[in-house]
Amino acid sequence: MKINLIPLLLLPCFFSCSLPVSQTGIDRSPSGACWEVNLSNGFQGEAEITSLYQCLNQRGSFDAFSGLVESLKEKDREGIALGDNLAMALNESQNTDLNPVALIQVAAELIEESPTVIENLQYLTLELIYGSVNPSSSIDPHIGENSILLPAWDMFYHQSRVLLDNPGSMDTVVSLFNDPRFEKLFCTLQRLESSSATQDYIHRLLPNIGKSLELVKNENNDRWTASSGHSLKDWLFALTDGDDGPPPYRELFEKIHPLIADQSLQTPIAEAIRIHEQQGDLSRLGESLLYLSSVDKDGGSLSLGERSALYRIIRLMDQSNQSLECQFSIIGIPITAISIDNLAVEILDR
User: Fold this and answer.
1) Coil, strand, or helix at residue 197?
2) What is the pTM of this model?
3) What is the residue-wise DSSP string for 93-157?
4) Fewer CB within a 10 Å sphere, N or C end of the chain?
């Protein structure tokens, strides 16, 4: 069933707009932002989106979004206003089979079954945006400095540039969303939530994320001497801070992307994952990685600033990712020779 989403945006107008009335009755020549909006045929561009915002914000309830709305006037690399692009995307969304009523019903059922889900989502959102569930002030210009999402914005920016500069990458993303398996993913998540075997785990997901955030903010478990006390934020900054060069995450993406996009590798990789999952290897993966990250190369306790066994294994694989050619001789007489195409692959095969 297809439902037009745009009329839903008009509902707040009934609460924020009022008809201009003169002393003699109804004004036959009304004016203002609300009268410049007509969504019966979709958004006509940036100007109409701005007018809708001004109509809904007559009492200043949405002043926090003024900067965002103003940025819609900026041009993209093709000279088209960002607001016009947004209007086009909203209009195109009407051609999808998205059923907002069904989504609202699923959300209502989830809230009814787990009344604390809204509170947990609120705490999680505050933690991600402000770095604290009790921000000092929403208008403090420095309040976002501890945000977990702050370093991630740079990732989104650079990733968008990669997609725009490489049409082939964009085609890969589009094909992903058009893949029937992507639709099945949502059905799978719904079944996980409704199945008695997994329902309890799904309902404990948000509280567990909250506990994880408490752990990453615990200064007592930090091993890096320059840590800020928030491990997740430090990790994101390490991925996005490239100093004078490209950020590390971009270098990592550029190396991984060819492997992911190579269809000849997708089938064997998926098969390898399936085999290891059936053998129960994946169930022990998290525990194994946690152990390797908490001990030194000899299996002993880590001291402050010391490299973990996991770090040393990754560095070993990186440095040995090359061919090996060597000879052994005694008094100039060749005894034996070793020739290995890739030392890292040879180590992993053993």
Assistant:
1) coil
2) 0.51
3) GGGS---HHHHHHHHHHHHHH-TTHHHHHHHHHHHHHHSSSS-S-TT-TTGGGG-SSHHHHHHHH
4) C
